[in-house]
Design brief:
The chain is α+β, with helices and mostly antiparallel strands and about 400 residues long. It has two domains: about 220 residues, FAD/NAD(P)-binding domain; about 150 residues, no CATH class. Strands 1, 2, 6, 7, 8, 9 and 21 form a seven-stranded mixed beta sheet that branches. It has a seven-stranded antiparallel beta sheet with strand order 16-15-12-13-14-11-17. A hairpin with a 3-residue loop joins β13 and β14. α1 runs parallel beside α11 and α9 crosses α10. The protein is elongated and about 90 Å long. The model has no long low-confidence stretch (mean pLDDT about 95). Bound molecules: flavin-adenine dinucleotide (FAD). The site of flavin-adenine dinucleotide has 38 residues, from α1, β2, α2 and α11. Flavin-adenine dinucleotide (FAD) binds next to α1, β2, α2 and α11.
Length: about 400
């Protein structure tokens, strides 16, 4: 039961990945501490439940803090399972991660108040007053772990930025990332198609991002992990003036398309098979895509391939292997999985995550100026910053 008249040793605003971790680590390090978590949602870890499509991709073998993260979860009796470098709980159920964290918080007698939105924090004579509608709490140390602005349905509506600004902190430019991309053109016929290949992002004929993966067509453009990861490099599109980015997708990266088409033409000429452009394309890319490729190349699918000129072959090959997509804007905060930008790193001691401006004020998680690609990197950062802040607050 949280006590309004007590001065807590530590108060944590935000009961997500980093906030829960900081509470557990602080209390482990010093069991005498009184700790309070204040959470806006009616339960802790609401966003965590939705992560990794309900499987919670907790870290990645390539993440900076992979070893520490594994040790943290082993201590919480969560057995890891690896899949292409991504680490999930062995049960592949995010609820098990959330329940392990909440179970530990309860075992450690950490106080929790849910369903409260902190609106203001002040500091007077070394004591923080944490204010919300109809109540306030006091503490000696304070952690702001309110996440960013991505996916506000989970409580992350950017409140932490204003709370931090009131202490003089500055915020770098914020943008939604790991989000689908709206593109120019009619996508209605392509909607629902998923295809594997290589995505590249180009700006002024320079490749600025390239990744192998699966692209998913939607009725407004494209989605999928490789598209999400590309948005980290095109984050201000549609905001600060549209930059002339182009996405290209190679539907058949392991094929010399020109050689393939020429072989087919030679074969068609020899045996007089009358093979059609549509038949060949269908074997290379999915049905809806083959239609779009022939439209873009301005070559009817019904044409016999033996009638194709060299320049037409080059054109078909180049469209299938450099399928152009012209982004107009990124889907916004609602659909984003992460926030780019945050509290300026120069104002924070990055070894402790304590503010350089206000003593005993700490930050952890997505509110900081960090964003990683899909694959467990953002949660890895949340566990890491929560651990370091928690350990230092306990001193
Ligand atoms: C759909 C989805 C899937 C994702 N999947 C993955 C994945 O598989 N792997 C990965 O690495 N990353 C994933 N991410 C990103 C990852 O979830 C976040 O980066 C991470 O949760 C950030 O941790 P955090 O502690 O900073 O914030 P959060 O976990 O977002 O927690 C912040 C908490 O603060 C609370 N809060 C906010 N304002 C207030 C206030 N004023 N008063 C009180 N409480 C407040 C919020 O309600 C929230 O519970 C995903 C994100 C989304 C949206």
């Amino acid at each position: 039961m949280a006590k309004k008249d007590e001065i807590y040793d530590i108060c944590i605003v935000g009961g997500g990945a980093s906030g829960m971790t900081a509470a557990i680590v602080s209390k482990y390090a010093n069991p005498d501490l009184s700790i309070l978590i204040l959470e806006k949602n009616d339960a802790l870890g609401k966003k965590l439940r939705a992560t990794g499509n309900g499987r919670c991709n907790i870290t990645n073998v390539s993440a900076d803090n992979y070893i520490d993260t594994l040790a943290y979860f082993t201590n919480l009796s969560i057995l890891p399972r690896e899949e292409d470098g991504r680490i999930y709980p062995n049960s592949e159920d995010s609820r098990d991660v959330v329940n392990a964290l909440i179970g530990k918080i309860c075992d450690l007698n950490i106080d929790i108040v849910t369903g409260v939105s902190v609106t203001k924090i002040t500091k007077e004579k070394d004591i923080f007053s944490i204010i919300m509608s109809g109540a306030s709490y006091s503490s000696k140390k304070l952690l702001i772990a309110t996440g960013g602005k991505a996916a506000p349905i989970y409580g992350t509506t950017g409140d932490g930025y204003n709370l931090s600004k009131n202490f003089g902190h500055s915020i770098t430019k914020l943008a939604p990332v790991l989000t689908p991309v709206e593109c120019i053109g009619d996508f209605k016929t392509l909607k629902g198609i998923r295809s594997k290949g290589i995505l590249s992002l180009e700006l002024n004929e320079e490749i600025i991002f390239k990744e192998q993966g699966e692209i998913q067509f939607t009725d407004y453009g494209v989605s999928g992990i490789c598209v999400f990861n590309a948005t980290r490099f095109m984050k201000f599109i549609g905001g600060d003036g549209v930059k002339p980015y182009t996405l290209y997708f190679n539907f058949a990266p392991n094929v010399d398309m020109r050689e393939f088409l020429n072989d087919r033409i030679n074969k068609a000429c020899c045996d007089d098979s009358g093979e059609k452009v549509g038949t060949i394309l269908r074997g290379l890319v999915k049905e809806g895509i083959s239609k779009r490729v022939s439209e873009l190349a301005n070559i009817k699918k019904s044409r016999a391939i033996s009638s194709l000129s060299q320049s037409e072959i080059v054109n078909i090959a180049s469209i299938a292997q450099r399928f152009p997509l012209k982004p107009v804007r990124l889907k916004g905060w609602k659909m984003a999985q992460c926030t780019s930008g945050g509290i300026t790193s120069e104002e924070i001691n990055m070894n402790t995550f304590e503010s350089k401006l206000v003593e005993n004020l700490y930050f952890a998680g997505e509110i900081l100026d960090y964003d990683g690609p899909c694959g467990g990197f953002n949660l890895d950062y949340a566990w890491h910053t929560g651990t370091v802040a928690g350990r230092n607050m306990s001193k």
